[in-house]
Write a structure and sequence with these properties.
mainly alpha; 4 helices; 47% helix; elongated; 106 residues; two-stranded parallel ribbon
């Protein structure tokens, strides 16, 4: 099965939904999930900002969730992974997280 959730929060929801459905049908089978690539998924706030017009007003930016917050995506990913860890453990499921390494060329 392949799913393409957009935000980090949607990934968490999709993983829990899929694991629960698989577990209902196959109570004893191990489950393996691959998340490629964690660095691509924005947060809900970042995603909401993509819907803004080209030159948004400060009021429109605030309504979408505000301006860039340093470390926001890393904090959101940390929160998702920390909440998924015990859930996956209790359901005999493994999550493989893939991320690309960026190197400065030259």
């Amino acid at each position: 099965m392949v799913y393409d959730p957009v935000t980090l929060e949607q990934v968490e929801k999709k993983i829990t939904t899929v694991v629960n459905k698989i577990r209902a049908a196959f109570p004893d089978k191990p489950i393996g999930i691959v998340w490629d690539s964690i660095g691509v998924n924005p947060t809900e706030r970042e995603w909401n900002e993509t819907e803004l017009p080209e030159n948004p007003t400060q009021q429109q930016i605030s309504a979408a969730g505000g301006n860039e917050r340093p470390g926001e995506r890393a904090k959101a990913a940390n929160k998702v992974l920390r909440s998924l860890n015990p859930f996956l453990n209790n359901n005999n499921a493994t999550l493989y997280v893939i991320n690309q390494v960026r190197k400065k060329i030259g």
